[in-house]
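Collaborator request, handled under Task 6.
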Amino acid sequence: MLLIKEKFIQFILDGKFNGNQNQCAQALRMNPPQLNKFLNNKSTKAGAKFLGAVYAYCEKEKIEFRDLIILPKL
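Structure tokens returned to the collaborator:
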């Protein structure tokens, strides 16, 4: 699975939290430095825990997670 960083920023960080990383991290139940590392490092990819947090948030807020996460083809 792959989280599309640009879509995450558009739909969640900017769309729901007006760019506030601390509020976003709190809503995703993760540490702000973990979110900051994902957002600011080009080579950093979302791990399983991060993806799970985004998925859970999308489910809770009725956001289509497939707009943000690319699933592997079987």
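The cover message to the collaborator said: "The two ends are 12 Å apart (CA to CA). The longest helix spans residues 48-61. Please let us know whether this matches your experimental observations."
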